[in-house]
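Incident log, entry 3
Record: Transcriptional regulator (257 residues)
Problem: checksum mismatch between cached and fresh output.
Input:
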Amino acid sequence: MREFVFTVEYEKGADEAMDLFIEHPDLHSKTMAVHATADSMWRLDRVTGPADVLESFDTIIEKVARGNAVVGMCGAPVVEWNYEVLSSTPNGRIIYSCREEGDGVQSIPYVAAKHIGDGLLMQAERRGNQYQWRLLIADDDTVGEIYEEVQDGLSDGLSLSVQRISEPECWLEEGFGADGLPPEQQAALEAAVEFGYYETPRRNSVQEISDRIDVPGSTLQYRLTRAEAWLAKQFVSGTLGTEVEDRVDPTELELSA
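Fresh output:
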């Protein structure tokens, strides 16, 4: 088995739901379970973020359920989409949803199920403008087939990049995830990394970063301190995920040993 990791990046305005993630970097969605056939998809997602942003997210998924919005991994129109909020807290939701495919609709789980068939396993994560997918694949030939069909199915404003085709490290390591870290602390760490706070020499100070992201300096410092303490307790030895910058040339889709 190999792990196939790729990311769909969204331009602002291409998808209403993803626009909310773009506008609010501290909004995060991680798939707890997803199952798909050639006809439909069932999934369970944990969405975390500030209370007011989650209220906006609730409004968007309600619009999708009424069938008057465009959503989907490839920007495809919804044929039939039903959902239920299984758990709701001020800063989190666990959402069950079921989506049926139609003629011409090319959602990523639909494409994966068509090429992989029985035994399909996948994970997904959304943050910012990135929707990242991880698939377990046994047949080497299906990698290129899935890539090409997803690429062809992308709507305007979406782009595809491949990060890794390798041993299934993320599925085997016990490790830890960022789920135990509050979303505002996740966002603080991401901003610190993005603006070179941890580089040598340091590119930006906490105050300079706080000015860029419009968060008070004292608040940002507090969030970074708490996040760093949490990371230390988890004995972090690796990264939190696959970075989109680590791209693979799609014309050379060969599985590494």
